[in-house]
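$ ./design --mode recover --in tokens.txt
reading tokens...
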């Protein structure tokens, strides 16, 4: 394989992306529902796209996360959900959106401490480790990554209780329900918006890197109480504030 002429050199300006615009487009762009390319397409590799062309926006993540919550409820999945993100520019914003929906749906969440990056295989391993020997109260997960896609892209994947990736029977249901929610202008989405500065109540556990050990990478976990403010405070502590922008459902028919 030939060595790239860019190897070992700073990226040229032509390859850099405008991260501020990317985040703004994520919050403000409206999926055109008449365009099939802007609907949720949730195959085994998850939904992928970019805010720049309206294929990966807050509206998509709101609808998809709500669909995952409804899938969990329908299948009796009551254990925690492990969520992790990669270093793509829009992954943090997508995780923030997902947390707001998961919290509103009463899902117990495990997230990397200090808003850190989570390697994709560790989510699968955490699910399998937690579920080992259990018959109910099983865990599942969400991985926020477009894998090898360009830096302006985002990706959103679901790992069921077997560690994932999800089979087509699951992804097909999630995709169809997410698009149904989108067409309804996200009115079916349950969401808790983040509170301004407040100190949360959190506890800490460990995600094992080996089946016999529980002393590896730390993560934060929170379980919703009867008071929604608890959820809001926890999300505010785990994730940096959103950039200024429209916090509506961001969907147009």
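writing sequence...
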């Amino acid at each position: 394989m030939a060595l790239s002429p860019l190897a070992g050199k700073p990226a040229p300006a032509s390859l850099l992306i405008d991260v501020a615009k990317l985040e703004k487009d994520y919050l403000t762009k409206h999926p055109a529902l008449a365009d099939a390319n802007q609907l949720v397409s949730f195959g085994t590799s998850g939904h992928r796209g970019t805010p720049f062309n309206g294929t990966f926006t807050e509206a998509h993540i709101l609808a998809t996360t709500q669909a995952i919550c409804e899938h969990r409820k329908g299948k009796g999945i009551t254990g925690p959900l492990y969520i992790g993100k990669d270093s793509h520019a829009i992954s943090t914003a997508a995780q923030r959106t997902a947390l707001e929906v998961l919290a509103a749906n009463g899902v117990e969440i495990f997230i990397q401490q200090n808003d850190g990056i989570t390697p994709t295989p560790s989510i699968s391993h955490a699910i399998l480790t937690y579920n080992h020997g259990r018959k109910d109260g099983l865990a599942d997960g969400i991985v926020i990554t477009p894998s090898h896609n360009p830096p302006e892209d985002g990706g959103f994947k679901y790992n069921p209780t077997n560690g994932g990736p999800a089979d087509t029977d699951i992804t097909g249901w999630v995709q169809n329900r997410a698009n149904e929610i989108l067409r309804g202008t996200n009115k079916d989405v349950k969401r808790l918006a983040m509170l301004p500065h407040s100190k949360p109540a959190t506890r800490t556990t460990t995600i094992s890197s080996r089946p016999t050990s529980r002393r590896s990478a730390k993560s934060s976990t929170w379980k919703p109480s009867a008071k929604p403010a608890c959820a809001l405070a926890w999300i505010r502590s785990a994730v940096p504030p959103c950039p200024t922008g429209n916090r509506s459902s961001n969907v147009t028919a």
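exit 0
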